[in-house]
Design a protein that fits this description.
By secondary structure, the protein is mainly alpha-helical. Helices cover 58% and strands 3% of the residues. The chain contains seven helices and two strands. A two-stranded antiparallel ribbon has the order 1-2. Helix 6 runs antiparallel to helix 7. The termini are far apart. It comes from Candidatus Gallilactobacillus intestinavium. This is Helix-turn-helix transcriptional regulator.
């Protein structure tokens, strides 16, 4: 499976078009199709953008491993920042900057209110 195929598959799993992905990542409109056409790999910075966007490892994108994630642990702040900055939607509608900030505050408050209940002994 090529990197194009993996990105296309991930986009579908996230209910995104390839155009939405390139727009969200601020890449040229045909960037992903050019990967397919040229057979080249993205540079390290762009690979990292794709990996962060889809919450997978760079090794997964490159086909070096089949597991999408390298860790079960997720940093809430990073998760919120990544998702809110890369086109989070609700029922197909983009969130406004104010809605994104409200969501970030609400989820952070819930996390701190209940974090002790989920700690492992």
């Amino acid at each position: 499976m090529t990197i194009f195929d993996r990105i296309k598959k991930l986009a579908k799993e996230h209910s995104k078009t390839l155009r939405q992905v390139t727009d969200d990542l601020q890449l040229s409109q045909n960037y992903i199709y050019n990967l397919k056409k040229s057979g080249k790999q993205p540079n390290a910075t762009t690979l990292e953008k794709f990996a962060d966007y889809f919450h997978v490892s760079v090794d997964y994108l490159l086909g070096r491993e089949d597991e999408k994630s390298t860790s079960d642990q997720k940093d809430l702040k990073k998760f919120l920042d990544d998702n809110l900055n890369y086109g989070m939607t609700y029922d197909g509608q983009n969130l406004t900057d104010e809605e994104k900030e409200r969501l970030k505050i609400a989820l952070t408050q819930v996390f701190y209110k209940y974090k002790d209940k989920f700690k492992k002994d």
